[in-house]
Write a structure and sequence with these properties.
The chain has about 375 residues and is an alpha/beta fold. About 35% of the residues lie in helices and about 20% in strands. Helix 9 (about 240-245) links the parallel strand 12 and strand 13 (about 255-260).
Length: about 375
């Protein structure tokens, strides 16, 4: 089967070069590689902010096409608003049986869907980003989105919202998978409370807030001084976050590792007592978010932010209000009960292996493709 993946964003938010994308982990490459390893003919189409001409690269089992970002809409966003009106022509050139679009926002792909549907292609849309921005604006695009043949959604709140618009063609499906043979406990839990963050070093009003971790840890020092925190990753605001740590006199508690390879990440997640994931959620879904699944697979529970501003406990993690004072209070309580945390981690690994392993996800995706192609 010929499968064309479309990733309608560029990499301004992460400062990634094309080489960074090729050499570092990205979920779109994992989808492509897994399907290519099963004999499918796979191409991936992406946008990039630093090129003016199309670039084609041949990897081991599939091809990647980088296309220049032609314009940005809506303006002033840092992510998800890059466009190239000619990209659909390159997708058509692949003569795909399935076009699989990894989308984030309502404005990312509707024109591409309309243009591709003129050629009667089968289109799968897979949701990868929280879409609360401009919900009224999204309604304007619903007729075009209805042209897609199927939606894969791993976030229940988004699923409920899209169901109101379309009422059909929706499958509850993990946004990414995890390899339980790679992400597994490889180290004993740390002797002292160990907190880990892994992600972009950037402050997003509606997304990741690593600065909130730092403010929370400052409050946590009022309760205890036996913990250690590792902030893993790179990004455009890392230096500002490092300055904040120094200004709050937290250098003895907080270490920035920069970007690390997968093997080192597994070790940090294995030793961690908890993953502090400063992202707002309506619910802590097993099917949602890559680093969350990787932490679960390493038997590490997750602390994330509650969009509703309420405390909500799960078998494998907890949602807490945004306030550093509230976060520090509950974090101290969690760190004071390590057995409870470790049991949560063991439960999390069982669930993620059962439902979110890459092998399971790709097998299910193949069945979805085959059914669509037959119809």
């Amino acid at each position: 089967m010929r499968i064309a993946f479309l990733v309608p964003h560029d990499f301004r938010y992460s400062n990634w070069s094309i080489e960074d994308y090729i050499t570092k982990y990205h979920y779109s490459k994992k989808y492509a590689a897994e399907l290519a390893s099963r004999g499918h003919e796979v191409t991936v189409h992406l946008l990039h902010q630093d090129i003016s001409n199309d670039i084609e690269l041949e990897l081991k089992d599939y091809r990647i096409f980088f296309h220049p970002s032609s314009f940005y809409f809506p303006p002033k966003l840092r992510f998800g608003n890059a466009h190239n009106l000619r990209i659909y022509k390159y997708v058509l050139r692949d003569e795909p049986d399935i076009v699989h679009v990894h989308y984030y926002y309502a404005w990312s792909t509707p024109y591409v869907i309309a243009l591709l549907k003129r050629h009667r292609l089968k289109i799968v849309l897979q949701h990868h980003g929280e879409c609360d921005l401009l919900k009224e604006f999204r309604v304007l695009f619903s007729p075009l989105y209805a042209l897609a043949d199927l939606y894969l959604i791993g976030y229940r709140h988004e699923l409920l919202y899209v169901r109101k618009l379309l009422a059909r063609k929706i499958v509850y499906f993990p946004n990414v998978g995890v390899d339980p043979e790679v992400f597994k406990p490889v180290e004993m839990k740390s002797d002292r409370p160990l907190i880990v963050y892994a992600g972009r070093m950037i402050r997003e009003r509606r997304g990741k807030r690593p600065d909130l971790i730092i403010y929370t840890l400052k409050v946590l020092t009022r309760f205890r001084k036996d913990f250690k925190a590792y902030l893993i990753g790179d990004g455009p605001e890392r230096s500002l976050l490092e300055q904040l740590v120094n200004r709050l006199n937290l250098s003895r508690f907080v270490t920035f590792t920069g970007h690390i390879d997968q093997n080192k990440l597994v070790k940090y997640l294995s030793k961690a007592w908890i993953l502090f994931h400063p992202v707002p959620f309506h619910s802590l879904d097993l099917f949602w978010d890559g680093i969350v699944k990787e932490a679960y697979a390493c038997e590490t529970p997750v602390l994330a932010l509650s969009k509703l501003g309420k405390v909500k406990q799960y078998r494998y993690g907890i949602l807490l209000p945004y306030s550093p004072a509230s976060l520090a209070k509950y974090l101290n309580r969690l760190l004071s009960n390590p057995d409870e945390l470790f049991n949560m981690g063991k439960s999390a690994r069982k669930y993620v292996i059962k439902y979110c392993s890459w092998s399971r996800i790709i097998s299910k995706l193949e069945k979805i493709y085959e059914k669509l192609a037959k119809n």
